[in-house]
Design goal:
The N and C termini lie far apart (36 Å). By secondary structure, the protein is of the alpha/beta class. The chain folds into two domains: 54 residues, 2,3-Dihydroxybiphenyl 1,2-Dioxygenase, domain 1, CATH 3.10.180.10; 56 residues, 2,3-Dihydroxybiphenyl 1,2-Dioxygenase, domain 1, CATH 3.10.180. It has two helices and eight strands; from the N terminus they run βαββββαβββ. The strands form two sheets. Strands 1-4-3-2 form a four-stranded mixed sheet, covered by helices on one side. It has a four-stranded mixed sheet with strand order 5-8-7-6, covered by helices on one side. The radius of gyration is 15 Å and the shape is globular. The longest helix has 12 residues.
């Protein structure tokens, strides 16, 4: 057995607004969208995120996730400059004692997204 990839599936009632957020603010591409199914695939540089309407079998009042989605990347300083004025910031770019330089934002649904790279 070999795991090959982890692709989060984010529930949202606003798929089109979420596609716009990730494409326009974070540089993702929408590679597949099925309005009739309530499902979309976003990709950027080998990173994939699925979006879908909530499952009918589970209660869903609003998007909720008790953690964050952490993106390891190169060029975090440049990316911070590109997105900081277009998004809701959870915390600004900072270098931490544990060896990472990172920042965090919220997407249009309230999911926390962290972006970081090894501190110089």
């Amino acid at each position: 057995m070999k795991l090959q990839q982890l692709t989060p599936n984010l529930y949202t009632r606003e798929i089109e607004k979420t596609i716009e957020f990730y494409v326009n603010n974070l540089g993702f591409n929408c590679t597949d969208y099925h309005k009739d199914l309530g499902w979309a695939m976003l990709e950027r540089e080998g990173v994939s995120i699925m979006l879908s309407l909530p499952n009918d079998h589970l209660p869903f009042d609003k998007p909720a996730f008790t953690g964050s989605f952490y993106f390891y990347m190169e060029g975090v300083h440049k990316y911070w400059e590109a997105v900081k004025d277009e998004v809701e910031v959870a915390y600004p770019l900072e270098s931490f004692d544990y060896g990472m330089t990172e920042f965090a934002i919220y997407d249009n649904n309230g999911y926390m997204l962290q972006f970081g790279e090894a501190a110089e």
